[in-house]
Amino acid sequence: MSGERDENGRGQWGRPSGRGPGTGPAKPPWPERVPAARTARMGVYLLLLVLGVLTAAAGALVQSAWFPGGLLLALAGAVGLFWGGAKLCRTRVGAAAPGAGWVVTVFLLTSPRPEGDFAFGAGIGSYVFLLGGVLAAVMCATISLPAPPVPADKYR
User: Fold this and answer.
1) In the predicted model, what is the mean pLDDT of residues 61-83?
2) The pTM is what?
3) How big is the chain by its Cα radius of gyration, in Å?
4) Who has greater pLDDT, 122 or 128?
5) Chain segment 94-112, per-residue pLDDT in tens
6) Which residues pair with 98 in a beta bridge?
7) Are 49 and 98 in contact (CB under 8 A)?
8) Which of 6, 21, 35 is closest to 151 using CA atoms?
9) What is the DSSP letter of 100?
10) What residue spans carry the region label Disordered (predicted)?
């Protein structure tokens, strides 16, 4: 059905095409996953993991410094990274990669150091940051992303 219309005036992908006959196959209306090559996609996931580590470290410093604005800023940065990774890659791994980097870094920062110090300030803000960030990572990684539409003639 290359460049043709069916009896309802719909093109190759089941939508009105507006293209005349003989103009060649229509381009699918949805973008492909970014990037399409597997090794490049793994590189993007690794970059998102590193960004998760950096976001966790910055959030740990900011969340107690400017309470409550710093807490909101740190959580907004984390949520933006998780959701942005999911939307960029169009996969759940796109949100899970920065989420994993964030969670590992945050829990490493909460473990006591030999000097007896923590990287987090004392108070309720630290617990809200930890719990809120973990919940945001889980929600962004498990939310169902809309699937790209299937071509109309795929299963005929």
Assistant:
1) 90
2) 0.68
3) 22
4) 128
5) 899 999 999 999 888 777 6
6) none
7) yes
8) 6
9) H
10) 1-33
